[in-house]
Structures are given as C-alpha cells and as structure tokens.
Amino acid sequence: MRQSNKLSGAKVRTADAGKFGDGGGLWLHKRDARQGKWVLLVTVHGRRREMGLGAYPGVSLKEAREEAEKWRAVVRRNLDPIKERERERRQAERNLNLLKDISLDAFESRKAELKGDGKAGRWYSPLELHVLPKLGKVPVADIDQIDIRDTLAPIWHEKAETASKAMDRLGICLKHAAALGLDVDLQATMKARALLGKQRHKPKNIPALPWPDVPSFYASLNEGTTSHLALRLLILTAVRSGPVRKAHEDQFEGGVWTIPAEIIKGRRDATEDFRIPLSDAALDVIEAAKKQSRDGFLFPSVRKGVISDATMSRLMERRELEARPHGFRSSFRDWVAETTNTPHEVAETCLGHVVGGTVERAYRRTDHLDQRRILMQRWADFVTTKQADIVRIG
Predict the structure, then answer these.
(1) Contact 377/279 with Cβ under 8 angstroms?
(2) Are strands 26-30 and 47-56 parallel, antiparallel or unpaired?
(3) Which of 61, 123, 134, 286 has its Cα between 20 and 30 A from that of 258?
(4) Distances (CA, A) of 247 to 148, 300, 312
C-alpha cells in the first residue's frame, strides 16, 4: 500500500515552487512560495487522468485530502471522476431551474397584473395543488408532454376547469423559462392537450334561487346580524360576494356605491372603479350595517377582518337550500329578462359584465347609471314585496 498523508501543513506553507506528493495520487503543484494548485492523478479504464482539485491556498491540505478521497471512491466504482464531476455540475445547474422555482418566479413577475397582487392565490393554486406535487422538483427543461399528460390526467375530466387552468399556468411557466434563456419545449402543453383529448366534463352553473322565491327568502333575513345584512345587500345590488364582504363606508356616497377596480372580478377593463346605484332598501341596509361596522368595514368578522367567503353560503346550507349567494345574480338576471324590457347592455352592466368589443367600448363610454338606478329600484321593490310591474327601461 502506497504511503499517504506525506505532507504537513508546515511543509505546504513553506515549500518553494515545485511538485510535492501527499500520497495516493494527490499532488501539490506550487508556482511559487505562496500559490499553487492541487492535482489528483488516477488511472481509470487503463487511462491516466489528471484531475484538478482547486487552487492553493484557497483549498487547504485537509480539504484537498477529503476531495481526493471522494474521487478515489468514484474510481473504485470503475467510473471516470472527471466525467462524473461534469455530470454532477450539469445536474446542479439543472436543479437551479426546477419547475417549482420557475413557477414562483413567473408568479412574482405577474403579480402586478393580478387582482390584489394575487394575494388570494387563485392564479398559483392550480399549479400548487395539481402540478407541483408531481413535477415541482423536475428541471423545467426536462418536462415534456408525457409528464404533463400523466400529471393532469386524473383531473382532466373530473375537474375540467381546474385542469385547464393548471395547463394554462404551466404554459406560462414554460414561456417564462424560455424568456430566461432555458431550453424548454414551448409546445409541450399543446401536445399534452392532444394526448389528453377533449374534456367530457360540463361545467355546472352555481345553483340559483328562482326569482319568484327571492322575496320570501329576503324577508327571512330579518335578524339584523352581519350575515343577514350582507346577504340582503348582495341580493339588492346583484354584486358578487367579494365586494359585499369588503364593503367599506368610504365607498358609499350620494346614493352610489363605488367599488374599487382592484376588487372587481370578471371585467377585462377593470382599470376603473365600478359604480352601483343604490335603491332605497339598499341604503337602509347600509345604514343598519354601519351601526356594527369595525374599522369602517360594514361586515366585520367576529375576530378580525371581514366575514369569510363561506359565511353567507353556510347560512343557506343550514336552511337546506341548494342555491348559493352567487346565484342571486342569476335570479336578478332572469327577473330582468322575464319581467322587463331592459336593453341588453343595461342589464349586463348591472352585473358588472363587459359588453361589446374594444372599439365599441371606446365610443360608448357611459355606464348607464341613471337607467340602472331605475331598474335596481324596481328590483328592490319586487324583493321587498312592493309593487313591481313590468317596466320598460329605455
């Protein structure tokens, strides 16, 4: 057995220029008294290999010995240590670009485009729940259509909408990776869709209470609690639950509720605030809610913040109703269609929907506030059991 550990710390520090062996193939090549490099000489597959282990004094004698033993062990497995080190380097580089890291970077870069900077997590959650558990630790350059197909196949038909969102987000991540200069297959998601086939699942509409039944349900919300008042305002205004839950006293002025653009959902042009004309009944609900507001929010939760998204839904569940709060928007829209002659653009604007193309909207800049005020008052009259005959909103 060849002698090893021939060198000492003092010898290494004081040696002049030259080559000094430590044994076992480890050598120190000194250019001068202060600088040098460590070299490991090995024979693999009958071929002599010279492997650099780092510069001296940056790499100490102890560190050089540990590194040398690591690569000797590789040689004992009949592997080329230089090729193995290069393979490890490439793998390390690939690991810096795992899908989980790319997806977070893509999310961060798009926060400004998302409502509330994406704090609700709706953009990221399809990836987080259905893609990253399987592909998160895979280098993004390695992901192909087979990986994507196998990952989304379990939910492709059963949770079609979620699966489509996950596929779309994954496509954005691949484009983001390409923009970073990584070698990815930008057509991988398109190929995966072809492999998965057309989705069989048909989306279900949120159950809605038939509009003739709305007045009796509204009348039952008579306890003056936070959830009762919130549901009453939601019904009277046909607004989504989010803006209702986050309603703040500062948003109401002169019979108009102005919803900030950042909490408006479903509007492609949601760069402007959205105005809601308030009926007499809605104003009464708001005044009642102000008496129990906290920090200006009309519908505070018991502990902190505002009531949750599930608060109103659970109230309806406890009453064994299939309908959900969001369904009152459908109830309102059906009432409009069946009992009034309201123009389409007025009715759709009441729901905060965008009507017409970009050019048409550029020329038609009205939000039909006065016409909507008449319609919302008639709806409130119907809901509160006052006379509400068929009316023309011209």
Answers:
(1) yes
(2) unpaired
(3) 123
(4) 41, 10, 15
Residue 146 has pLDDT above 50, yes or no: yes
- Global model pTM greater than 0.70: no
* Mean pLDDT calculated for residue range 142-170: 94
Using DSSP bridges, classify how beta strands 274-277 and 252-253 pair: parallel, antiparallel or unpaired: unpaired
Contacts 24+ apart (CB under 8 A), 371-375: 371/342, 371/343, 371/346, 372/277, 372/346, 373/255, 373/277, 375/336, 375/340, 375/342, 375/346, 375/347, 375/350
- pLDDT above 70 for 362: no
Here the tokens at position 2 are: 């060849």
d(CA 66, CA 70): 6
Domains and CATH numbers, the chain: 9-94 (3.30.160.390), 99-196 (1.10.150.130), 211-383 (1.10.443.10)
DSSP 157: T
Compute the distance between CA of residue 107 and CA of residue 208 in angstroms, rounded to an integer. Answer: 34
Question: What is the distance between the alpha carbons of residues 28 and 57, in angstroms, rounded to a whole number?
Answer: 10
Whole-angstrom Cα Rg for the chain: 34
The 10s digit of each residue's pLDDT in 104-121 is 999 988 876 765 555 556
Q: Which residue type does 141 have?
A: A
Residue 253, H or E segment:
strand 252-253
In this structure, which amino acid lies at residue 93? E
What does the DSSP 8-state code read for residue 224?
A: -
Q: What burial class does residue 268 get, using C-beta atoms within 10 Å of its C-beta: 0-12 exposed, 13-18 middle, 19+ buried?
A: exposed
Strand stretches in 32-139, DSSP E: 36-44, 47-56
- Residues present in the chain in total: 394
